[in-house]
Structures
1.
Amino acid sequence: MPKLSRTQMQLLVYILAYPFLWLISVLPFSLFYLFSDFAFFLVYTVFGYRKKVVLENLQLVFPEKSEEEIMQIRRKFYAHMCDVFLEMIKTMGMTKQTMEKRFKIMNIEVLREIEKEKSCIVPITHYANWEWNVCVNNYFESKGYAVYQKIQNKYFDALVKRIRAKWNATLITQKETVKTVIRNEQQGIRSVYGMVSDQSPMMSEARYWGSFMGITVPVHTGMEVLARKLDLAVVFLKVSKVKRGFYEAEFIPITTAGGQTDENSITDRFLEEAEKQIREKPEYYLWTHRRWKHRHKVPEEMLK
């Protein structure tokens, strides 16, 4: 039997996986969340996926909490994480009406007023359900972009793009972001750019260190650089989980004139809002990421 090429292997994996993903997406919500409960049992109890990483992260940022509190947060987090990742799949089969019922925008007028005057960057975090955030594109007139990490399997990558297109969002990679924003500004195309901004940058790309959950770490400053250079607005999207399968989103303005802000002030304000959100209900943050892995590499000049 001849060896399959990389493209053929990607296609085979996609063909085998797609029917399972489709089936999950069309399950009634009652059965859907029963399946999530089963996934939680496998992920948390059987396989113990990254339980050590989650425990270390929680102990690091919540030194004041007891062991019992930490364990409760960890368990709730895993239950929520299974819901979220399956809800991402559920997006495939959701209608606009269902999404509007389950993901409510509380103050869309804030963004609508800003978009009348200029383009806007909307930084978000890995909190609550960051995938369903994309539905906000149905509520404003500007062209909506979502910055994402390209999937290596081109068939799954195309699937993600098709799903996002349902919500009027155009996906662009991090490498495409700068040229896309500059081009749109030069052509006078007012746009809204959604960016997940709480990841840990590679040390080679670390330009600024800020306090996140009480720990000094390198942080991404790309959104601030664009906002200050092109005088864009920046509005944080705070998402809260109301109950299982239901979320509310609130726009919190950081600045309406990025070009008039002090260096690092936008980044610091974003970190402040992100931390405030996480401390309210920590079980809804994505603790499996090694967000604080570079904390021991703080530049010497910052220690003085």
2.
Amino acid sequence: MDRKILRFSVTAALAGFLFGFDTVVISGAEKTLQTLWQSSDSFHGIVVIGMALWGTVVGALLGGFPTNQMGRKKTLVWIGVLYTVSALGSAFANDPVTFAIFRFLGGLGVGASTVAAPTYISEIAPAKNRGKLVGL
């Protein structure tokens, strides 16, 4: 197997890892955020914490459009931009609504990556290794 293709495939596959990582990271801070912003349980769960999930659903539903229009690689680059903006915005958010908006943007990136990453990997992978690499 070509090392360059393996490296590109692993890099693209990290998109799926990021949502799990984000979920784990927020779970350690969510009670502190609820106390800091004095938000109700329902607002905190649905809006503050749940926005990443809502963004993921929307991103997965609409992720095929940029993937087809711009191409897989360019879409993955823009997804990386969404992740970066989301991370920085979440880090500097001073209120729960701003925080939720940036979490939603990150979720959009995660959802779109579930479409773009496997498609990109399947396009660059040789036929004999395609299943293994897409399975990453």
3.
Amino acid sequence: MIPPEEGEQLGLFPKEATPEPLLCWLWLAHTLGFASPRAERVVDWCDDPVRIWEERDSLAFREAAGPSAARRAVAPGNTPWAFRTVVTQCQRLGIHILTYDHPDYPLALTRIPDLPLVLYCTGDPSWLNAPNLVGMVGSRRPDNYGRWGASSLGQDLARSGVVIVSGLADGLDSECHQAAVDVHAPTIGVQGVPIDRTYPASNRMLRTHIEDYGCVIGEYGPGEEAHVRSSFLQRNRLIAGLVQALVVVQAREKSGTMSTVGHAERYGRPVYALPGDASRENSSGTNRLIQTGRAKMILCAGDLLEQLGLEETAPAPAKAPALSDKERRVLACLKQEPASLEDLSAGCGLEAAALSAVLMSLELCGYVKSLPGQRYIRL
């Protein structure tokens, strides 16, 4: 990011011009901070980033964003134009910037309270909205049983139409990604480091293969400073938020994997775990998840496929169809509680006839379910 005083001298930060929406999204994400618990509240108040910038000193913004972010919003030098260098870097490196209103932004993340307002992506971002995304996570120091479980389960799931999501870390994350790559299936890596870096560096070749078949995403832009411990814990919420279900292959009771489980529980995602030898510490966490009822036991891919409504002979996964602006607007208005046609019409600004057509299209695509009394719920 260009220092404010240098940018002003170069005339890069015009004071009166209206900034581009992309720059405003980058500014807002920076202003709220990573994993902000108020992100959903801000976009519920207003999902127009230019208007948010223009009303950054308003009471409504302060109430939505909170006092700390409100102070940062009006701090000298914190302007949308300061993020032009980020856009330039991403263009040069072939990195996609996915803002909250971008067609490829994952819809699954739009309804979590600490949603990322901006994601960075390499590879094909359209896989982020594919059906049947399943998280697979586990120990960074697995034993042979854990590696077997990741490879066996991962390959069977990938062959059956599941898109595996994991953290591109050492150990079982890598094994799960590799399982999908081995059967030429898409997989999604979620990073906790800047998007132009790969951690660990030994996974560079694996990352290249992931990008060939799927994509890699993260919240940190190129060259951005990341606080390693907190950034990986924040990364875990994205894995949990993206997926329909989470599979824990092998983990100790006290491990980073358990933070991903906690996020999945918070977001209402079902958790599954592969049982292991009770005498092995590596399997103590997965066994305890099953024992306490926090996870359902999974013995083979078929156990999960049945829950997802898939068959072991299912075709290769397909990308989700592109959604129109009206469809995305309606989905953003819908929550997991039933909403009437009248309420949706008022919230989305669409006439009843046009709204009905959009809802029918979304229902056919499996995004929405109609209920008696002209009520609708988001799936």
